Amino acid sequence: MVEPMQTLAGRRPCGRERLWKAPACRSVAVLPFRCPRCGESTRFRSLTALRTHLQFSHTFSTPPVSRAPPISMPPSPEDDRPAFLELHPAPTPLTTAAKAHPPPSPLDHTYGGVSMEAGLQVRLWVALKRAEQQLQSEHAQCPLLLEEQHRLSRQVHSAAMVIASLRQQLATSQHQLKQRESEVLGMQSWLALAAQHEMCSKETLRSFIETLLQRLHVAESCANRRP
User: Fold this and answer.
1) In angstroms, rounded to a whole number, what is the distance separating the alpha carbons of residues 137 and 129?
2) What is the DSSP secondary structure assignment for residue 141, as one 8-state letter?
């Protein structure tokens, strides 16, 4: 949680007002960490609160504010005296030079590290957003891919059915071819047997004709010998 912002007063309280508001000024001055983007108007008690404020309240496009004067020290117990006892010493050259050239704050390096860490976190968040968008686009393409897969599955199923029918037709054609080959072989064997029977019949008929001719010749010979 981001701690509430504290606002530094621009004037110095006097008298009875200082007596009532001294604890509040001390609590404001105790806060050591200021926002490099908001300036002195925003201070935090810990680096965690400052880091959270930078992460959720500022981006890279937020222009940084100008360097603010150094942190004012809490008022001493001597400042709690009444207003009529307060003395206003004249400013010396040493105090004027110190105000003109304040010493560098030791927290500037801390602010730079916090800003770099916040930048890394923002870059990581941007990379995660890009990955999420890519996943969403791929998830949006999933129905199209599923539809394409179903279409290809239907085409493969149809091709498988066609191949199965062609295989069945090929098996039937092979069976018919084998049956016709067996019929042709049977016809060839029958024709060979018929040719053999025909040759035997011819041979028998020729021998019968020769025997008949011989008998006829013998009969004619006998008839010529008789007176």
Assistant:
1) 12
2) H
